[in-house]
Amino acid sequence: MSHTHTHGSPGDTHHKAAPMVEEITDYEVLEIAVRELAIEHGLFTAEDHRKFTEWAESIGPAAGSRLVAKAWTDPAYKALALKDGLKACKEVGVDWAEPTGVGTPSDYMEFHVLEDTPALHHVIVCTLCSCYPRPLLGMSPEWYRTTNYRRRLVRWPRQVLAEFGLILPPEVEVRVEDSNQKCRFMVMPMRPEGTGNWTEEQLAEIVTRDCMIGVALPKPGRTADVHPIQKARRPVKSSHQEAAQ
Amino acid sequence: MSEDRIALLEATCNQDKTWEALAPRYGVTNPSPPWKTSLTAMCDCLAASGALPALERRNAEDDLADSLYSHIPSPERELLALVHTMVSRGLVNEADLISRMKAVRARLEEV
Fold it and tell me: For residue A222, what pLDDT band results from cuts at 50, 70 and 90?
């Protein structure tokens, strides 16, 4: 179904609605059905479900980026972040006790910031399941949950990091920190060269989610919004290009 | 953890109807289906209430992702594994689920 919306005042312009998947799949139906039955059986309440949904949708990696940028510019804050991660989180507006008052069931209230140095690089994983510092970084990326990442990172960290485009010199030690049900971690990467006079806001922009997982390094000009610019070395010729030759 | 097949889920796990397959067909760029966060919240609720601890759910999901639902991508696989685990543990009943799915579909198609 495709239609146009007209909004409000006469000055408003018409615009085409964003495309939607216009069919009801059994997956969608199954999710609703099992949730309704779980609520009816008293496994949880609709209100609790709404609260957890709202909370999950409201968080992203921005607070983590602010934490790192603040630590880069404020030595006292950096010391706090390394000593008491939960307290440092509160200063960037994240209280790990939310939304329940004692934290979510999958985000226990123990959290450590791992500092990278010229000789040491950290990367986080959860070999057991998908533990992730969600209050600070939001939902984990799909690849973080895959067995490919979880099983291989601890065995062949350099190989896996290289698959993300991160190739570290052999003299840099790679330390894989395994998150678990009781403790969460986040990587504090090194501040890159060329950012000496940057503001906290500018710095936060280059501390992307992947930098705080440890599969990427912050770099001036590389933000979460930057698209790949490397041209293919041997691009396939399109049919009309071949026809023109 | 039981990896016995569950007829309802066998009938549901259609690769062609996953978000990964459907979204490009409709020109939709959102990487996740609209029900994804609801599913995550449901897992959180089940853990919070003690009905299904997160670790046990994830262990079961790992097993099922390697076996019965290995051909289905995430998040549909996560949903199938969760429901599979809930049915196996008697948290919900397969017959109730079949009946409720019919009712839900009728409700959604009514509008």
Answer: confident
Question: Who has greater pLDDT, A12 or A176?
Answer: A176
Report the CATH superfamily, name and number, of domain B7-110: Nitrile hydratase, beta subunit (1.10.472.20)
Is A126 considered catalytic here? Answer: yes
Q: Domain coordinates of chain B in residue numbers?
A: 7-110
Which architecture does CATH list for A60-213? Alpha-Beta Complex (3.90)
Query: Whose CA is closest to B17, among A30, A142, A33?
Result: A30
Cβ separation of A44 and B96 shorter than 8 Å? Answer: no
Q: How many beta-carbon pairs below 8 A join chains A and B?
A: 150
Contact A49 B28 (CB under 8 A): no
Please state the pTM of the whole predicted model. 0.70
Q: Does the beta-carbon distance from A31 to B51 stay under 8 Å? A: no
Best mutation target, A29, A127, A149, to test chain B (most B CBs within 10 A):
A29
Long-range contact list for A191-195, CB < 8 A, 24+ apart? A191/A72, A191/A218, A192/A217, A192/A218, A192/A219, A192/A220, A194/A220, A195/A220
Residue A122 DSSP code? E
Model ipTM over 0.90? yes
Whether A226 contacts A96, CB under 8 Å: no
Structural element, H or E, at residue A123? strand A120-125
